[in-house]
Amino acid sequence: MSGHLTYPLLDGVPVLLADPVSVLSGSPPRSAAAADPAKCGLPDPVTPHLPPSLFGAPGGFGQWLTSLGETCPDAVAAGFGSKHAPPGPALDVGCGVGTMARRMVTAGRATWAFDRSPHAVLLARGLLCGTLQQTVIPTSRRGLRRVKVPFKPITTNLQFCIADAARPPFAPESFAWVHLGDLMDDMGDDAGEVLVASEKLLKHGGILTLTTSYGAPAAPSETVSPPEEELLEALEAMGLSVVEQQDRVPQVIRDYDRGFRIRFAHIVAARKK
Predict the structure, then answer these.
(1) How many structural domains comprise the chain?
(2) What is the three-class DSSP state of 92?
């Protein structure tokens, strides 16, 4: 990363956007403790880091969760990256609360993580780096419970910034492993631009891992291709070679006042030729 030394900081995190003033003038959180998980699209900041076997639920559904063990989209994508990516640094694009960034560092990679949401970045840094030792999770529609962060702080090999996935602030061919979570569903019309930008960040031989989670489109159409088909066609057109993929990986989302939601993700690892 270069050429951004004059960009402003938000609680020590560089704001590497083309319009940083607009972000800083929009009442962003000033610390991890002030960041709002709801503004990251999450019921709480802790559950996304937990394996399904620790969620806890009664009866047969609870037994099924236990049988999943560590299996979830992030775990599968992390396994693909660890297996196929050459030595070198990793990047978590659209990091959310840092679930993949934590796995990348744990796998021994020097890791950058960024998101356009200041709430997500400050929460991720607080959770992973030890600024937040406790946080709150909803237990009912109006109830909250204070819990300890369930993993040890990361003290090295992890850096954060606030940035735009379509215009990442890194030089081409900077990373051996780049991850995009829920690309096709969550990025809408910008998905193609983000995919191209991420491919440019990969070294030759580097690995791009992606998930698509089959979210329902805003306007269903009989002519729209399934998201995994669209993604594989896009990767091929860009010259990326799929080295491994897994379909229908369960993603369990816990809504504390309304139980659980389950969706299935398609996980892909593709190599830059």
Answers:
(1) 1
(2) strand
CB contact at 8 A, 114 and 96: no
25 closest CA partner among 118, 97, 93: 118
Determine contact, residues 99/127, Cβ cutoff 8 Å: no
Place of tokens 């735009």: 164
**Strand, helix or coil for residue 266:** strand
Reported as a single tens digit per residue, the pLDDT across 81-124 is 999 999 999 999 999 999 999 999 999 999 999 999 999 999 99
Look at residue 1 and tell me if it is in a domain. no
Domain extent at residue 103 = 12-214+224-272
Non-local (6+) Cβ contacts of 264 within 8 A are 213, 214, 247, 248, 249, 250, 251
Domain harbouring 28, CATH code: 3.40.50.150
Q: Minimal CA–CA distance to 224: which of 266, 185, 268?
A: 185
* Residue 7 covered by a domain: no
Model confidence, pTM: 0.92
Helix axes 118-129, 99-106, angle to 10 degrees: 40
Tell me the residue ranges of DSSP E strands in the chain.
9-10, 13-14, 90-93, 111-115, 134-138, 144-148, 158-162, 175-180, 202-212, 240-255, 259-272
Tokens representing 96? 């959310």
In a domain, 187, yes or no: yes
Q: Which two tokens stand for residue 115?
A: 């998101």
125-165 pLDDT, tens digit per residue, is 999 999 998 888 888 777 888 889 989 999 999 999 999 99
* Residue 179 covered by a domain: yes
